[in-house]
Amino acid sequence: xxxxxxxxxxxxxxxxxxxxxxxxxxxxxxxxxxxxxxxxxxxxxxxxxxxxxxxxxxxxxxxxxxxxxxxxxxxxxxxxxxxxxxxxxxxxxxxxxxxxxxxxxxxxxxxxxxxxxxxxxxxxxxxxxxxxxxxxxxxxxxxxxxxxxxxxxxxxxxxxxxxxxxxxxxxxxxxxxxxxxxxxxxxxxxxxxxxxxxxxxxxxxxxxxxxxxxxxxxxxxxxxxxxxxxxxxxxxx
Length: 237
Prior knowledge:
Layout: H1 2-18, E1 24-37, E2 42-53, E3 58-71, E4 76-88, E5 94-110, E6 113-123, H2 131-134, E7 141-151, E8 157-168, E9 177-190, E10 194-205, E11 212-225
Parallel strand pairs: 1-11
Antiparallel strand pairs: 1-2, 2-3, 3-4, 4-5, 5-6, 6-7, 7-8, 8-9, 9-10, 10-11
């Protein structure tokens, strides 16, 4: 029942957003993620994602994310990720890009809620080295601040909300946060450490003279492997 209501809400918001005019766009994101713990404190994940834009009928990009995380004491964690992507340029030519990021996170349980704050620094180098100075928008650096809240006391369902702000750090003409994402999501636990999720994102971008808005509907699937067990040493007699 909850999933049906969420789906109806997402579809209503998406149709309403698309109908507003050319400033709005409708995207769909589809992702597959596999990950788990390598040791008690170290984790590894690999995610493959495909994104469609222009009312979700044109290919936007596909990428592979590889992330290595480390759990710190008292709810903190740190991770580093690398992204290899294929996207279309202005001439509709497919080319590859790279992106690097470092995250610092903090999680806390309050009542029946799990809250997490994440600060990310990311850089996407230009596809062409000589464009670093000629076209600074082709090689942006961002600090991204994200706050998420999940309700964890339902048996198999996990609903939540998240807010994220993008801050350009290398361009003095774009000081402060000018891009935002508002997310509502619902995850469902499947057997054998599997999970499927549905989410809706409202993205606002105020970097251009005319603000750009996007409605994003996404489906994700994830699988978590078990941490390898250490072999017990047999006592020598």
